[in-house]
Amino acid sequence: MIKKFLSSNESSIKKITKDNKYVTVTLNNKFKENSVDDRFWIYCKGCKDHVFKKDIEENLNVCPKCNTHYKLKARDRVDLLIDKDSFKEFEFDLSIQDPLKFPDYIEKINSYKEKTKEEEGIICGVGTVNSINTVLCVMNPDFMMGSMGSVVGDKITYSIEYAADNNLPIIICTASGGARMQEGMISLMQMAKTSQALSKLDDKHLPYITILTDPTTGGVTASFAMLGDIILSEPNTLIGFAGPRVIEQTINQKLPEGFQTAEFLLEHGFIDIIVNRENMKDMIFNILSLH
Ligand SMILES: [Zn+2]
């Protein structure tokens, strides 16, 4: 019975030999992944081992063994970067457009609102980083993969304009699947709108810092995410525009290993520095202090 179960998991049993007194069982990763209670353990994709879930959660969702950074809730990221009780969220009265009458779009949005208790895929406001005032926007990967529709675009644009009008720096933490396809062309227009707003900051020589977190892709990468004066990233972040398979098919070439990771992009000069989550606030403070 055991043998049957193991063989169905592509595992192997070594036979008893003269040198080998006991039967040894080698288990493949697939079997290991499924073999423990996932209420308490996480199978870490970085160190390919089981890590106590609580140890990861208490370490800002970072694996204490191998430093793999897992997703952090948007509200937790605000708390991580901004001084306690200093964050004032901007209030918006914006409703989602459904220009294409995309099937089930509004229902989907409503279910995300209920699930996340958030109104949209980004949190924007003003607060202090070790007593330095700044505008902060944090994209919410739990809300429709942090996709950028017209409301997300409006909120980012407002935040940038607020920073420009009040002579404040702005930090945007990205985490997004890209433009929200359910809004078609309107979502793509947000790329131009946010980029244009950033030119106002440029005119006033105000610093714009982006923090890229996993994943930062599509129209978000192709607009405000990569326009930071200083571009920071967390380790093992996926950063790209189109998916690797699409690129390979288009250029008819095999892509190098690690393509679209923060580490690869740092090596090729697309980002400025990779910062561990626990050090991010200090890094932001140092940059803001310099300005
Ligand atoms: Zn790990």
Fraction of residues in helices?
25-40%
Amino- and carboxy-terminal Cα gap: 68 Å
What spatial form do the alpha-carbon principal axes imply?
A: globular
The total count of helices amounts to 11
Query: Could you say which small molecules are bound to this protein?
Result: zinc ion
Mean pLDDT: 90
| Computed Rg | 22 Å
CATH homolog superfamily of the largest domain: 2-enoyl-CoA Hydratase, Chain A, domain 1
The major sheet is characterized as: 7 strands, mixed
Strand order in space, largest sheet: 5-6-7-8-9-10-11
CATH architecture of the largest domain: Alpha-Beta Complex
Report the uncertain regions.
Answer: 1-12
Q: How much of the sequence is in beta strands?
A: 15-25%
> Structural class, please?
alpha/beta
